[in-house]
Structure formats: C-alpha cells, structure tokens
Amino acid sequence: MKLDISSDARPQIRMLLFAALITIALWYIPIVGWLAYPFRIFVTFIHEGGHALAALLTGNSVASLSVALDGSGETYTSQGSIFSQIFVSSAGYLGATIFGALLLVMIRRAVASRIVLVGSAVFILALTLIFGLFKPIFAGSWASLTGVPFTLVSCLALAAGLVAIAKYAKPRVATFFVSLLAAQCVLNSLLDLKSIFFLSFPGSDKLTDAGNMQAATHIPAMFWAIVWIGLSFVILSAAVRFCACKRSKTADQPDLPFEEPLEV
C-alpha cells in the first residue's frame, strides 16, 4: 500500500530515516559499536519498565527491577491471573516498541524535545529508585541486591546524559537525539524479538518472556514471538503513517527546528 508523505512531514521522515541508519551502523560497524551501548541499556530500562507498569496496572506487585552489564534485564513481579501474566510478559518488547512509537508521535506533534528528554530521564530514574533500589533494600534478600549497583549507576548516568542534552544541546540536535532514541527503541525491540523467535524452537532452555508465556498459557513460545513481532510492526506502521500525515499548524504550536529546509 502506497504511503503518501505530506510535504511538511518530509524533513521529519528524513531525520527518522537518518536516525535509523545510524542505529543500524552502530550495531554492525565494530569501530563505533561501543557507542550503541548506552542506547542498549536505555532500551533495557524501558523494556523492564514495561513489565513493571503492566504488573501494577493488573493489580500485581513488583519485587525488583535490575539491568545487567551485558544489556539484559530482570523484573520480578507477583503472579496473578493468566490474563495478567500475558499482559505483563507482553509488556516488555511491546512496551519498548510503544515507547519508541510515542516518541515519533511527540516529534510529529511538535512536543518540545527538551520536555521529552527530561521526561524520559525522570521515568527511568523513578523506575530505578522505586523498584531497583528501595524495593530490593526493603526485601532484604542478597539475591535481589546484587543487581543494584550497576542498575543505579547506569540509570544515573543515562538520566544525567538526557538532562544534559536537553539543557545544553541546540534544539535541532536535541530533536535528532529524540529521533535516535525512538529508532533505538523500535529497532532494538524488533532485533530482540527475532532472537526470541529463534530461541523459541523446541529444546532451547533459555529463559525468555515467550517462555514465560508458554508456561502460563501452554501455547508454544514461538507463537507468542510471532504475535509480538506482528503487533510491533502494526504499532510501527501506525506511528509512521501518523508521522507522514499533514499536521495542522496552530499559533501555539510552532514548527520544530528541523522543519526548516535542510541545507545541502
């Protein structure tokens, strides 16, 4: 199906495509691959935050949230009904995809990039302090405390970086950085879901969200991986179509800095 891109959306679409190309380059060019690490940790915080928020929305409790040096993460929640288990397990990858899609929508709606960056910093900081620090400390078990140091340090570093960009970067640079975060969230989630798909073949003993879904529903993990991939593409498609539509301008909603013609 043909996608008609509004003329006022083309600078933003070019910016998003450029951010996506940079994201892919950071994955596959060894000499700059280390630059992708902070983004990977950020996406993991969003992923684990999705699990935590889904647990709270379904009336469950969150025992701990942690992020590891290798970019993996763990969130322990109480188990409720099958519906809540499905919702919580699905909220990791889909939550990161939705977060990235929301960033795209906010860019298109001309929400100030500084607000988006500071809001993202506050979000991961609140998650870490509540579920990554205070909850494990109050639980008092050594097993739940081992992940606290790296989780806390990485969160503080990310939050400080986001706030610094919001405060000191030029509007155009800050907006591009939001586009880069959006691309990282969406593309990392899709890449992880591809890995989950291959880890869902019979015989794999790797603990995954899809495996948790299989344990809760007795439906093969591969089915859930396919469903999540399909839903992620639907979410991404809807966000891109929204970004491609013409935006009505109002007096109190100025153009974003990069909506000026790009210099050649």
Strand segment tally: 2
Q: How big a fraction of the residues is strand? A: under 5%
Record the strand order, biggest sheet.
1-2
Low-confidence stretches: 250-264
Shape: globular
Distance between the termini: 31 Å
List keywords for this structure.
two-stranded antiparallel ribbon; mainly alpha; single chain; 264 residues; 68% helix
Element layout with pairings:
Blueprint: H1 10-28, H2 37-57, E1 62-67, E2 73-77, H3 82-90, H4 93-108, H5 113-139, H6 142-145, H7 148-168, H8 171-199, H9 209-217, H10 221-244
Antiparallel strand pairs: 1-2
Helix pairs in contact: 1-8, 2-3, 2-4, 2-8, 3-9, 4-8, 4-10, 5-7, 5-8, 8-10, 9-10
Architecture overview:
The protein is mostly helical and 264 residues long. It has one domain (9-27, 34-72, 79-245). The protein contains 10 helices and 2 strands. Strands 1-2 form a two-stranded antiparallel sheet. Strand 1 and strand 2 (73-77) form a beta hairpin. Helix 5 (113-139) crosses helix 8 (171-199) and helix 8 (171-199) runs antiparallel to helix 10 (221-244). The chain starts with 9 loop residues before the first helix and ends in a 20-residue tail after the last helix. Mean pLDDT is 82; it is low at 250-264.
Short description:
The chain has helices at about 10-30, 35-55, 80-90, 95-110, 115-140, 140-145, 150-170, 170-200, 210-215, 220-245, and strands at about 60-65, 75.
